[in-house]
């Protein structure tokens, strides 16, 4: 979200995300014109390139591939670009031949061994199972026949063309003209121009943004772009940079022509890369042959483990290079089934996980485009112009890639089209080369002037809030963040505190001190002042500071135990409903007075296992749902901070966050001395991260498919419009697809995510992510293109939703059944040709699915039964997991475990890559381990760990109870080192603050509580261990196979 | 005089009202799907009529029982049971936050109810006609009887 601040200083960096566009000015292309012929010699590697490959280390084979033009030599310059080579030389032969040429080098990692021989047909032939570890038949089978005919996206994409080779089928009609996704009613009263005048930041921005209006303004554009680009690479190396854009070789290139080339690269690359690059037909795991006697056959060390963390799906990115980055949009499988019968055989969810505002690394910011005269959109389906649209009729018309309607090109957007269908001004059009782009929305996208960032605080000041120290930490944190709130001079702020009465604060800037007004009539709430409860921060800064300074002392003596939460919520609603914004609720006790008061329904053990169990996880009072709906209607997002040591009914309170696009932060048993840093970090991140206000999101997709259900924290405003009062980079949304037609006739399905929002600087913007996915007619292909991360993300959301309507056990069984069904279907694909008895097979792309499934069943929202997790914790975790982006979710499910004692005493650099399997056997009594799930650290001290280390880390009291000791920087090398490591971890994942818990081996129940239950591969509390789980899945897969 | 035709007239009016209410609800859900209506409006509209609808059906049911129309009472019982169940499990009101998840099932339920009321309406109308006819005939007989006396 860093891109949102339309700050001229940022500007030069922006184009960095658009390698294609940006270097253009510095290359001859701009002037050299669109003639294809002239390009070809540049891209096409000359014969000399082949010499790069003379010595592939293991090219012992008879190789067809050796003479292939080397389009992708990692270090070479222009020739490294992938272009379509001249008509394939005969030596290319069948697509698979590339593989024959290079017998795989031994690939040591993950215990996988390449097969000794390869079948020409592309069908896998399994190597003799001579050894128990999995023997993946790493065969590059005939890759996706349908794609070959589709034209060659990769090559044309890389040359920066809007792929003229994909002629959208002419017969396609988008049958459901969707109403505009955006509130398109005319601006009420204030025009866009006047809006600009009001918000200076906005006005400044305008002239600087990449102006799209004048079709030909190369001069200024060039200048700016060049400036931004210079540091990254020499201007001439267009191709070298493009290579950076496509860093990894295609996993499964659509055309067999590439296979030889691809393989050569692998030959040169280190074995790990080679292993990733190979598209395997399947992997397998030897489980012994006789059911019942598995234990001998299953090699625990050989089980697949995601020790590299989340591996981004590469397959689709390589086929469609103009797709948006996978951090924004991930499909559960990049191969969309072409028929309903095929879809029904794919037992995993088909859908997408969208994180529209994911944080981008510096240099890859989403480019901002400003059309002066209206945004170019399809007339019928309202799709935004994107890299996959095609221009025809000499540039006067463009064809929508989603509904294939022919639209007119507005005169000021017109540009000539060259012989290959490529616009001549392509390089100046980021929206035609980038999968992700941000449009500046004109006035017709506003129903009111863009709102200012608004933060409102609803603070519980009852006795427990004061006693736990929450009030003090919170006031300090808010005060320290005042400078960094987004929106600079426009930001609005306000406070309400409550116990059994509600206290309003007049923060008028002319006052020296805030005025407190107490309302004690809870049944008929009124707001005592029409304004000045919500004030401009920069104007009333001194009053706000005075308030925050005095807040903890003001309620120091408060003995009130009641909490009039509902009425206070209503009061906040009345104050905020004019503008919308973000409401932060700090709640310490169970709401006890007025509307929405909750009963201590508690965590009743008798209810568990009965049909009424799920009711505990639902909001008790319809008041909360109704309020949440009203808040969303008025563009208010709610973040709930809950602190109680007793039952607070998070299930009810969290509803407010769930339907307003907010988040739940839960600090059970909050103690300022322990949790201070955590609250501080998370609250300040919540306040200062870039936020998109009053947003709506819609995902459009091509004809024949439709998004049918959405999962996450938001409210649906119409069938496919997500209302998101506030969005930020830590929120992801999932959606499931279904096929509407029995047979898809297209070869590609396009998806377009559009998020219309108001940036903190007061600008209305539309962030558009476009992605394409091939339609496949083969189940194996779907499996090959599957993305475990996205599948697990959808699974977790579905399972959590299921816990709201049925028992925990049913939710867990649901996951298990779907995994079993999917694996069984996969097995049926291959079981006929191969003798697979005694082995479990699974696609390479889904090798971690069983493990993540197991981890999901053991995650807080789904784990065990009554006694395993407290109800509040369960609910809080469920609300959190419903919003987590894929990467954080995978880390939460399979956390990092690293051994650090050796690093602490040596001077070696700490390597975060050496993750250990999550089992007790990884823990050595002489070691010191760090466990990191993204939300907390557990530092585990082995029994036989050198006392020196312990002493250095926790000081003299190392023999005492660890629950009272916290890890802090001490003046010695070991302590500095471990803090360095922890900070490194924290920096890599800043969404939440990982509080550090120290645990000594054998220190029950602490050890069990913090660490042992989180070791997902072990058998804990009635749940299966990893090996047992695999055997269980295997047995079930075998049944009715 | 014979009160039976009036009773059947009341029944048919009630039935017609129920039919209308259900159609109104069904239309609301269809509009929601077609995006002519937002969830807020839909829930306020439907929640406004749903309890009256249930009460009306209950009244109809009880009226049948009181007037001794056993068959009609038994026929109207399933819907009454469904309504009661919805009401007791607190599912009768439209939940504005989750309305899109239930919209297809709600539509289906309304459609079935609509069909039920249409059939029921047919029955009621027939009985009304019969009762009117029989009342007329009874009057005729009276007239005949009177005429024979005189």
UniProtKB/TrEMBL annotation, chain A:
Signal peptide: none annotated. Residues 375-413 form the Zinc finger Sec23/Sec24-type domain. Residues 20-30, 152-163, 205-224 have a biased composition (Polar residues). One of its GO terms (cellular component) is Golgi membrane. Keywords: Cytoplasm, Endoplasmic reticulum, ER-Golgi transport, Golgi apparatus, Membrane, Protein transport, Transport. Residues 787-890 form the Sec23/Sec24 helical domain. Residues 1-230 are annotated as: Disordered. This is Protein transport protein Sec24A.
Automatic annotation (TrEMBL), chain B:
It holds the Pfam family Cornichon. It is a multi-pass membrane protein. GO terms for cellular component: membrane. InterPro entries: Cornichon. Its main location: membrane. The chain crosses the membrane at residues 7-27, 54-77, 114-138. It is found in: Membrane. Keywords: Membrane, Transmembrane, Transmembrane helix. Belongs to the cornichon family. This is Protein cornichon 1-like. It comes from Salvia divinorum (Maria pastora).
């Amino acid at each position: 979200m860093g891109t949102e601040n339309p700050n001229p200083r940022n500007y030069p960096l922006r184009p960095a995300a658009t390698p294609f566009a940006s270097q253009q000015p510095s290359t001859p292309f701009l002037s050299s014109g669109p003639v294809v012929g002239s390009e070809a010699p540049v891209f096409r590697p000359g014969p000399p390139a082949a010499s790069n490959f003379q010595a592939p280390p293991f090219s012992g084979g008879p190789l067809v591939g050796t003479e292939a033009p080397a389009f992708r030599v990692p270090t070479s310059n222009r020739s490294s670009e992938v272009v379509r080579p001249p008509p394939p030389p005969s030596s290319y032969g069948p697509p698979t031949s590339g593989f024959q040429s290079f017998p795989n080098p031994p690939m040591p990692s993950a215990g996988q061994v390449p097969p000794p021989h390869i079948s020409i047909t592309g069908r896998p032939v399994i190597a003799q199972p001579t050894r128990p570890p999995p023997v993946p038949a790493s065969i590059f089978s005939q890759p996706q026949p349908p794609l070959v005919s589709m034209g060659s996206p990769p090559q044309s994409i890389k040359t920066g063309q809007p792929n003229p080779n994909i002629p959208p089928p002419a017969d396609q009609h988008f049958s459901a003209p969707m109403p505009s996704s955006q509130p398109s009613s005319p601006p009420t009263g204030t025009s866009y121009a006047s809006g600009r005048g009001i918000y200076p930041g906005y006005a400044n921005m305008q002239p600087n943004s990449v102006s799209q209006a004048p079709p030909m303004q190369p001069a200024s554009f060039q200048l700016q772009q060049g400036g931004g680009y210079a540091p990254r690479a020499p201007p001439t190396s267009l191709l070298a940079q493009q290579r950076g854009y496509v860093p990894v070789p295609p996993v499964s290139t659509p055309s067999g022509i590439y296979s030889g080339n691809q393989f050569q690269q692998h030959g040169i690359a280190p074995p790990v890369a080679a292993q990733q690059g190979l598209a395997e037909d399947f992997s397998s795991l030897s489980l012994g042959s006789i059911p019942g006697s598995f234990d001998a056959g299953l090699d625990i060390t050989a089980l697949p483990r995601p020790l590299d963390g989340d591996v981004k799906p590469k397959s689709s990115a390589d086929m469609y290079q103009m797709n948006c980055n996978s951090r924004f949009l991930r499909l559960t499988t990049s191969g969309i089934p072409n028929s309903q019968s095929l879809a029904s055989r794919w037992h995993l969810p088909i859908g997408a996980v969208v994180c529209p505002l994911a944080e981008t690394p510096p240099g890859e910011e989403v480019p901002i485009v400003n059309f002066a005269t209206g945004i170019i959109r399809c007339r019928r389906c309202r799709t935004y112009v994107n890299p996959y649209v095609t221009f025809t009729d000499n540039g006067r018309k463009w064809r929508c890639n989603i509904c294939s309607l022919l639209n007119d090109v507005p005169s000021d957007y017109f540009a000539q089209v060259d012989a290959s269908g490529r616009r001549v001004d392509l390089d100046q059009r980021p929206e035609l080369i980038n999968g992700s782009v941000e449009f500046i929305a004109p006035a017709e996208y506003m129903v009111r002037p863009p709102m200012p960032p608004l933060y409102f605080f609803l603070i519980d000041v009852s006795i427990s809030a004061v006693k736990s120290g929450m009030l003090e930490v919170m006031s300090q944190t808010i005060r320290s963040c005042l400078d960094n709130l987004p929106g600079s001079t426009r930001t609005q702020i306000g406070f309400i505190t409550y116990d059994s009465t509600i206290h309003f604060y007049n923060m008028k800037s002319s006052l020296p001190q805030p005025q407190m007004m107490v309302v004690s009539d809870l049944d008929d709430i009124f707001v005592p002042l029409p304004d000045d409860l919500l004030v401009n921060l920069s104007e009333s800064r001194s009053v706000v500071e005075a308030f925050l300074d005095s807040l903890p002392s003001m309620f120091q003596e408060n003995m009130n135990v009641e909490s009039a939460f509902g009425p206070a919520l209503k009061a906040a609603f009345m104050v905020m409903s004019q503008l919308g914004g973000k409401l932060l609720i700090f709640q310490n006790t169970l709401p006890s007075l007025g509307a929405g008061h909750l009963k201590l329904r508690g965590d009743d053990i008798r209810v568990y296992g009965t049909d009424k169990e799920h009711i505990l996880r639902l909001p008790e009072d319809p008041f909360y749902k109704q309020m949440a709906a009203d808040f969303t209607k008025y563009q208010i997002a709610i973040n709930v901070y809950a602190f109680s040591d007793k039952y607070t009914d998070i299930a009810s309170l969290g509803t407010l966050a769930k339907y307003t696009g907010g988040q739940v932060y839960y600090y059970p048993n909050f103690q300022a001395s322990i949790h201070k840093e955590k609250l501080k970090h998370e609250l300040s991140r919540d306040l200062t991260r870039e936020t998109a206000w009053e947003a709506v999101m819609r995902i459009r997709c091509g004809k024949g498919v439709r998004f049918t259900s959405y999962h996450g924290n938001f409210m649906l405003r119409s069938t496919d419009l997500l209302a998101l009062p506030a969005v930020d980079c830590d929120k992801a949304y999932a959606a499931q697809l279904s096929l509407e037609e029995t047979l898809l006739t297209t070869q590609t399905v396009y998806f377009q995510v559009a998020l219309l929002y108001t940036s903190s600087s007061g600008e209305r913007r539309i962030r558009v992510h476009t992605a394409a996915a091939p339609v496949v007619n083969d189940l194996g292909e779907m499996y090959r293109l599957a993305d475990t991360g996205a599948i697990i993300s959808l699974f977790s959301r579905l399972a959590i939703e299921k816990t709201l309507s049925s028992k925990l056990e049913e939710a867990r069984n649901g996951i298990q059944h779907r995994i079993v069904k999917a694996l069984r279907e996969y097995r049926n694909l291959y079981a006929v040709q191969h003798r697979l008895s005694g082995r479990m097979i699974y696609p390479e792309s889904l090798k971690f699915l069983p493990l993540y499934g197991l981890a999901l069943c053991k995650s807080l929202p789904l784990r065990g039964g009554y006694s395993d997790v407290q109800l509040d914790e369960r609910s809080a975790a469920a609300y959190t997991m419903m919003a987590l982006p894929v990467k954080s979710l995978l880390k939460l499910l399979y956390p990092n475990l690293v051994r650090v004692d050796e690093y602490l005493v040596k001077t070696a650099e700490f390597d975060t890559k050496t993750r250990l399997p999550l089992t007790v056997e990884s823990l050595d009594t002489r070691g010191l381990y760090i466990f990191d799930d993204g939300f907390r650290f557990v530092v585990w001290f082995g029994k036989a760990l050198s006392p020196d280390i312990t002493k250095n880390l926790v000081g003299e009291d190392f023999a005492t109870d660890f629950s009272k000791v916290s890890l802090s920087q001490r003046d010695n090398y070991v302590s500095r080192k471990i803090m360095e490591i922890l900070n490194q971890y924290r920096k890599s994942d800043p969404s939440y603050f990982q509080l550090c818990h120290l645990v000594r081996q054998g220190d029950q129940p602490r050890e069990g509580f913090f660490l042992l239950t989180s070791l997902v591969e072990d058998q804990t509390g009635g749940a299966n261990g990893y090996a047992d789980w695999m055997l269980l899945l295997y047995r079930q897969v075998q049944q009715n196979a | 005089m014979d009160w039976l035709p009036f009773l059947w007239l009341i029944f048919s009016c009630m039935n017609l009202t129920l039919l209308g209410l259900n159609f109104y609800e069904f239309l609301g859900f269809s509009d929601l799907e077609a995006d002519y209506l937002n969830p807020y409006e839909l829930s306020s509209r439907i929640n406004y009529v749903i309890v009256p609808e249930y009460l009306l059906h209950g009244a109809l049911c009880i009226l049948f029982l009181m007037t001794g129309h056993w068959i009609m009472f038994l026929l109207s019982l399933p819907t009454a049971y469904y309504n009661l169940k919805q009401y007791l499990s607190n599912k009768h009101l439209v939940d504005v936050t989750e309305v899109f998840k239930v919209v297809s099932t709600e539509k289906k339920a309304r459609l079935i109810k609509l069909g039920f009321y249409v059939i029921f309406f047919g029955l009621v109308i027939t009985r009304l006609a019969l009762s009117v006819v029989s009342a007329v005939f009874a009057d005729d007989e009276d007239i005949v009887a009177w005429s024979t006396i005189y």
